[in-house]
Amino acid sequence: MVDLNFYKNKKVFVTGHTGFKGSWLCHILKLAGAEVMGYSLAPQTKPDLFSLSGLDQDPHIQTIIGDVRNLEALKKAVVAFQPEIVIHMAAQPIVRDSYEDPVYTYETNVMGTVNILEAVRDCPSVRSFLNVTTDKVYENKEWHWGYRENEPLDGYDPYSNSKSCSELVTHSYKKSFFNGADDFSKIENRGTSISTARAGNVIGGGDFANDRIIPDCVRSILKGETIIVRNPNSTRPYQHVLEPLFAYLLIAQKQVKKSELADYYNVGPDEADCITTRELVDLFCREWQQQTGKSQSWENQNIDGPHEANFLKLDCSKIKSRLGWQPRWNVEQAVEKTVEWTNAYKDQKNMAAIMKKQIIDFIKTEQEEQYV
User: Fold this and answer.
1) CATH at 84
2) Residue 341 maps to a domain
3) Keyword Transcription regulation: yes or no (predicted)?
4) Is residue 347 part of a domain?
5) Does residue 228 lie in a domain region?
């Protein structure tokens, strides 16, 4: 499992740090004692987790508001900071939005990847680079077993396809310029290990994005409305947001010490936590009633929308066998923690403290109490 002591006083550059996953990652790195610089657009939702949890005013987090499509600005930020570790999460992440603006999606998700890798090429201090993509990069044949890392990449919609392209860009740069190059005379920075991580659907407190089922549940509850579910029979691998984030940190750490561990990794829950949207919403409603004493209902509505896969699952045996990673919270625990966060937000509690508590709870699951 990840050793958070490894990150103490390490310089970590994070793109997309003002987003949902990025905000949680910043809190983990802050707890670990890392020196963090984030490069991202301003928060894209209202409200937003970055501001709610105080990161916008946190002296431990250096923030640059910028666009990954701007190569020169991104290079300048990376080179000035001289990070040892770079985690690339900046993206246009919404499938429906990718249909509405495919050009922006490709510019951000593909050229953004090119640009951050170009910045890393210019910064020899970087020893570890991780590109975060998605489980949707695979050519989805709707089969009932998990996709492995050697399966064909061919995302269907512009978002998924742009992430497939982002993977291919990373593969090319890795082979051409970094560790893993076929022709070692071409390696410009022998000390930089490159990996990608393909994570499944995440849930957790503070996700306010449009067109995602748990944020839709939260918005309906806070408005006192019935939850609307579009595709109740779609099956997805659901995991708490802390699961992939700790996996990312594990990959970034391990490949510093052993460059041969740099690879392409699926990150997802156990098979039992690959459930339908219907089952997920039922869990959320039951947990909400248990924690608050208030009942909540949902209804299915057939709403016209873009293509969505009915079934998607990952085979995560590689990261388990090679890096010793295991998921810690099952989907019931993930929903419990999401409802706990939402209830605290509704009651206007200190959200940074709530997030720190949940991170520590997550670490304690593996009896790593030395980080408390």
Assistant:
1) 3.40.50.720
2) no
3) no
4) no
5) no
Inter-axis angle of helices 112-121 and 158-177, nearest 10: 20
DSSP string, 92-107: ---HHHHHH-HHHHHI
Helix axes 213-223, 277-292, angle to 10 degrees: 40
Q: Rounded to a whole number, what is the largest CA-CA distance in the chain?
A: 66
| pLDDT for the residue numbered 272 | 83
pLDDT of residue 370: 42
Global confidence as pTM: 0.93
Cis preceding linkage at 306, omega within 30: no
Domain residues for the domain of 89 are 4-202+238-274+307-330
Tokens for 194, please give them. 């490159």
Residue 238 to residue 214: CA distance in whole angstroms: 11
- Residue keyed to tokens 């076929």: 182
Give the model's pLDDT for residue 366.
66
Residues in the chain, pLDDT under 70 = 179-190, 302-310, 366-372
How are beta strands 235-240 and 274-276 bridged, if at all?
A: antiparallel
Task: Write the CB contacts of 104 (distance below 8 Å, at least 6 apart in sequence).
Answer: 92
Residue 200's pLDDT is: 82
Q: What is the pLDDT of residue 371?
A: 43
Structure token digits, residue 280 = 């997920």
In this prediction, residue 167 carries a pLDDT of: 98
Three-class secondary structure of residue 131 per DSSP: strand
